Amino acid sequence: MDTIFALTSGAPPCAIAVVRVSGPSAGSVAERLTGRALIPRVAVLTNLKIIDSSELIDRGLMLWFPSPNSFTGEDCVEFHVHGSRAVIGCLFETLSKFPNCRPAAAGEFSRRAYVNGKLDLTRLEGLGDLINSDTDAQRRQAIGVMMGGLKSTAEAWRVKLIDILTLVEADIDFSDEGDVLHENNSDIRKLLEEIKEEFHQAILRARTGVKVRDGFSVVILGPPNAGKSALLNWITQREIAIVSPQPGTTRDVLEANIDLKGLPVSFFDTAGVRDGEDLIEVEGVRRAFVRAKSADLAIWLTEFSNDQRIPDELIGTNVLEVRSKADLCENWHQEHPHDLAVSSHTGIGLRELLDAIYHNLCEREPSFEPALISRSRQVSQISAAHRLLQCACEADIAPELIADDLRCAVRCIEELSGKIDSEDVLDSLFSSFCIGK
Length: 437
Ligand SMILES: Nc1nc2c(ncn2[C@@H]2O[C@H](COP(=O)(O)OP(=O)(O)OP(=O)(O)O)[C@@H](O)[C@H]2O)c(=O)[nH]1
Ligand SMILES: [Mg+2]
Hints:
The protein is an alpha/beta fold. The protein folds into two domains: 3-115, Probable tRNA modification gtpase trme, domain 1 (Gyrase A, domain 2, 2-Layer Sandwich); 121-417, P-loop containing nucleotide triphosphate hydrolases (Rossmann fold), CATH 3.40.50.300. Helices cover 44% and strands 17% of the residues. It is built from 14 helices and eleven strands. The protein has helices spanning 26-34, 85-96, 108-115, 121-132, 136-146, 149-174, 186-214, 228-236, 279-293, 332-335, 350-363, 376-392, 399-417, 423-431; strands at residues 3-7, 14-22, 44-49, 56-65, 76-83, 101-103, 216-221, 254-260, 263-269, 297-303, 319-324. The radius of gyration is 29 Å and the shape is flat. It starts with a strand and ends in a 6-residue tail after the last helix. Bound molecules: guanosine-5'-triphosphate (GTP) and magnesium ion (MG). Guanosine-5'-triphosphate binds at residues 222, 224-230, 243-245, 247-250, 271-272, 324-325, 327-328, 343-345.
């Protein structure tokens, strides 16, 4: 087994960089670099020297985590050095000179932690999401999973399924007829229905979890010159899109992400909707509608003076009608009291618009409690278990088949926490983790 190393802190230059070394020779590497005896779990200020030389690489902290009490479960040492490219480069070059010591691949520390039983897959996925979290909702969701929320839920499901399986197997052993569930076993049916419903609710909540993890999308559409680009710039507080009085300025779909009260939301600015001859503009409008169709919300933005109705292409899309350039219509409050109106020039109505967008997105979700399921891998495992239970719940099904469905459902739930034999699945999972994790 190789000893691996990587930078586990952010990109240099930075004040302090943390370099993690894990594997069988981590201890001897640390002793040779520092010339000191190792003290477990105590931060030691020490010199780090180039091997077989008195030349100093840097002076920093060393932390020694002997196996099994480390992140990976292996012998592990961390060096906290100054975060310059030169210091890290010199330290890496020195580490590479030790036999069987090499840079870690993406997710390799996590994979070793998983293989050594330190963390199950759900907790590692939670850890990955926590590291990648941009907004508070993402952080709250990820920390719940990282702390083992999904692991313990999956374990409870597994136990319930096995309990029902035991009852079904007893029924098979004692039943005279053997072709349908024994009459006094209506409680088996009840238990099957209950856990099926639990899976169903989990799948419904997962929609929110996936949204919080991956982000919501809001597309701004409207006629040319409606002020779509000015609105995007105001929302993001950046000069992302070109704003000009010339109709047809925006042609491509432009994207910008914001943190909307804790929700990750991507806003898209699009080409003004009109029938035109210009091929590029026609393509821009086509792309605008394609983007809107898969969006969580489309904003149809028009000036008060423009009565262009919501295009048919948006039928079936969640649309919020908004009036632009409210500053040009002094009496809009009296004349259009129910309209949502904004001005990117004066800021009128923009807070209200963001509130309306937030509520619109929230209303469509079953609950905004931090969800435990937020990855498509997890959703597909639970959906598979749910489908098996739907089969098991069918009337007149032989107990042997119910037992089969239950066994398969147990496997699906076990795979949720990572009892996965396939190396390919593990390869693809861990390669999505970053280097140093
Ligand atoms: N008075 C006023 N003018 C605005 C407002 N928002 C945008 N404008 C002006 O309206 C013109 C068009 O604005 P854009 O944001 O480029 O409009 P657009 O909808 O992106 O236009 P296209 O990209 O051509 O479809 C520019 O001259 C803006 O300065 C507003 O709130 N009030
Ligand atoms: Mg524009």
